[in-house]
What does this fold into?
Amino acid sequence: MEWWEVALGILAGLIAVYVVLLPGLWAYARTHPETVGMREALRMLPDVLRVLRRLAADPTVSRGARIKLFLLLAYLVSPIDLVPDFLPLIGYADDVIIMALVLRSAIRSAGPDSLRRHWPGTPAGLAVLERLAGLPAQTSGNPRKENTDAS
It folds into this structure.
């Protein structure tokens, strides 16, 4: 078997995964009302990346949740995406959807207190992230504890 046949097989496999997963991701985003809009997601991105790093570094968070968060961070910085980022609008949609799915799982594992303790952003941003994760809304008091992490 020649090298170009192997490369062609890998390319065909990636295209097949793309064709199968993209409609599923798109359908999920359109049918779930709790998903966050693109504008809202972009506004929250710096805070979400900070909370991801903080949760992943917190030894009190379960190992499984931390592994999910490290894998998500690796995916976000990777140049390889399901949908190339140079495509207008839809290019970043896969990143947002995958981030939402992994965050939902990891935050549910870590618990609302860990999220609130590490959240660096506004209370409104925290409320959006809690809604995205399917956590119950906080009814009273300061939505986040004092955070001494200077990042």
Remarks:
- Residues 41 and 54 are 19 Å apart (CA to CA).
- The radius of gyration is 18 Å.
